[in-house]
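For reproducibility, we list the full input for the magnesium ion complex.
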Amino acid sequence: MNAIEDLPKQVELIEVGPRDGLQNEAEPLALEHKIELVEGLAAAGLSTVETGSFVSPKWVPQMADSDAVFRGISRRAGVAYTALTPNMRGLERALESKADEVAVFAAASESFSQRNINCSIDDSIARFEPVMEAARQHKLPVRGYVSCVLGCPYEGEIDPQAVLEVSRRLLELGCYEVSLGDTIGIGTPGSMARLLDVLSADIDVRQLALHCHDSYGQALANLLVGLQYGIRRIDSSVAGLGGCPYATGASGNVATEDVVYMLQGLGVESGVDLDALIAVGERCCGQMQRRNHSRVAQARGS
Ligand code: HMG
Ligand code: MG
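The corresponding predicted structure, in tokenized form, follows.
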């Protein structure tokens, strides 16, 4: 048996640091440094950079300047600069900002849905309908997120069937893929495998991405399980920036540097220049006077 022979040969990383990372930092990063971060990530080879979030600034003040970030960046050809859009106001801002792609976000848990976007799962899907319609008219691809796929801070365990149902609804609405969020990083390779058993029986794995927070240190192991199921799209955050403002105890996403290092070891191509990426993460952490949570960056002693 060769456990790595059948892995995908290429994986696309979706860099979520400028959004998922920065939305949860207590000290805001200055606008010019956010712009520098996005540009540095694209220059390091990340072909999708989640650049901001067009949510209510009352709910997430750290993302209030996303419009200015989009205005300020120099764009590289071939890179998609994306944003979250919870409602029509968000979509209008995304269009004004010329985002290349947007994302709607739902949850597999009712309590999390209420606390994160102030409505039930059903209401969130109804709210996304006009967003999807307008995005379609503007030929804007829409990604769907499902939070709490391996556990909820308020409800505990989540039934994989609940994840399947919300994922299906997002795909039926027109999302081109669903990113499965282990929002509080509570999953293990066991629970990830049980989830993917259920999802992959019903959904083409090419329509699934993984979004693992690393609170319990399981993210890389969980991603490896995802690769074994054929998943080729992984969300990660430079320097392990981030968390979630509505999930107490959630640490940042798995660090992009650590994912790139693991993929290199597996012989899986990601197109990212690891040294350049480490330099981007170090610079950002220096600007925020924050510890770099990438283990690879720490080991390199940069
Ligand atoms: P609400 O309070 O129910 O709705 O919020 P509202 O329509 O009454 O809006 C409240 C105020 O916000 C109003 O202003 C609106 O105009 C304004 P006021 O009249 O009071 O002056 N507003 C907006 N302003 C700018 N842009 C907008 C916008 N929408 C409303 N788009 C709402 C509902 C969805 C807006 C709110 O709950 C919200 O913004 N939530 C966002 C929460 C969030 O961003 N969470 C983090 C992202 S999700 C995540 O991190 C998980 C993920 O990473 C995956 C994982 O890890 O699981 C994706
Ligand atoms: Mg997240």
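The pocket of magnesium ion (ligand 2) is lined by residues 20, 181, 183, 211, 213, 244, 253 (CB under 6 Å). Residues 21 and 242 are 3 Å apart (CA to CA). Both points were considered when choosing residues for closer inspection.
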